[in-house]
Structures are given as C-alpha cells and as structure tokens.
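Please, does this match?
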Amino acid sequence: MMFSITFHHLIVGLVTGIGTLCSLSGMLAYLSKFFVGGSRYRDYLDKVAYVSAIAVIPCLLLAVLSGTSASPNPGGDAMTYNKFLFSGLTLGFVVSMIIGRWRFGSSVWTDSKLGALQATCAAGILAGITVLGSIGGKMTLGESTMDILPFWPEFNESIVVGQWFGLALLILGIASMVISLKMGPKAERLAE
C-alpha cells in the first residue's frame, strides 16, 4: 500500500510536467502564427506538443491505476469519482489533440478553425490537469491552490450515474467516433 502511494506521486508528477509541456507548446504553436517570425519556432513547438501528448497517455493511465490502488476506497466517495471523471475528460482532450495533429499534419496550427480547435484541446488538457491536482491536494492536504478562487466548485459532491447508463454513454461515444471517422469527409494533410 505504501509503495502505491509513492508510485502514484511519482506518476502524477510526470503527468503534470509532461501534460503542462504539451499544453503550453500546443497553445504557443497556435499563437505563433500571430507573431512575426513565429513560423521559425512553430515546427519545434508542434513536435514537442505532439510527442508530449503521446507520452501523456500511458502516464495518465498509470496515474489512474496507481491512484486506484493507493486509495483505501476507490470510487467510494465523490472526490475520487470526480478524479476519475476529470481523468477521462483530460484523456479525451489529449487524444483529440493527437488525432487532429496526426490526421492533418503539422500545418494544423495555421488553419483558422483547426488550429483554434487544437489550441482549445491544449487548454483543456491544462485545465484538466489543474483540476486533478486541485482535487488531489484537497484529498491529501485538505487544501489546494485553487481555493483562492471564489467560484471553484465543491468536489466533495458529484452527480453519480448508474453503471448501465455509464456503459451506454461509453458505447455511444465510441460509436460516434467510429461513425465520424468512417463517414466523415476524408481528411487530407494541410499544405505545408
């Protein structure tokens, strides 16, 4: 049990560092098109964002598994339930960012709509990691850095959906992804 807690703290540090690097690189890659000479750095920022997004996935999954094994009652209270919820949301932003970059190439950042979507995913990753860290701080320390905000939600309450409803939502989400990938317009790389 004690090793699980130590391992969880190590993995959470990796998720936080790599995820923040991914987010900031992605947002800067998008913003680089608005600055003179930004194209010189965009390629580097794009590569850093792409590789670090790929690295976040196994780290985030390990963080969920290690957190589950370190918790005395995983999913038994609203705060751990919310951690599962925000871990899934963060993972969704990461996967969306990776798929967008993979399907459209490195020029995705210069496209007006797709670049904004990529930057939104990058911001979502950073927001998800911030919320996860805040919940973790509340659970272990009783406080978090986000307590200074007057509008921060209470994470010790949560809407709980039934197991079958959750499974139905998962199947619907997977089916929506498959349909959009198969029936949507063929994605082509954007011109470099």
User: Anything to note?
Assistant: The mean pLDDT is 79. The two ends are 51 Å apart (CA to CA).
